[in-house]
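USER:
I wish I could look at a protein chain and see how it folds. I am handing you a single protein, as its sequence and its fold in token form. As I understand it, each token names a local backbone shape. I hope you can help me see how the letters and the tokens relate. The protein I mean follows directly.
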Amino acid sequence: MNTIKLFSVLALMSLVGLSLSGQTVYFGYDAAGNRISRSITLQKSTAQHESENQAEPQEFKDQLGTHEVLIYPNPVTSELTVKIPLLDDNEYATISVFDQNGRLVYRNERATALNVIGFSDLHAGVYYMKIMMKDRSVEWKVVKE
């Protein structure tokens, strides 16, 4: 009996430890009560996630013809950066941002190598960004938190 209590306490402590360390364990049972599956979900704390974004934002890359396009951060809270590093001084791209209803909320017809788009005045949700250059275009979904 003491062994069962000890085992139960140790099992509970390990589950609590996993939950506090950013992991959640889920068990699946059949109709007879037998455990048939176990899954672990990893989670990041918000504070850890924010500090990582401030230190080094994750860049998302795409190609627009021969030009590489870098976009970060996505999801965005206040400002979205769009880089087209190899864009010449006399070359321009057009950046358009639309809301979920298709309304144009931002447009820059003379986008250069470095562009910062303000999202702080926009409501939280999903926005669609289209970057065009000559006869080529790329489209992105941007999430505003």
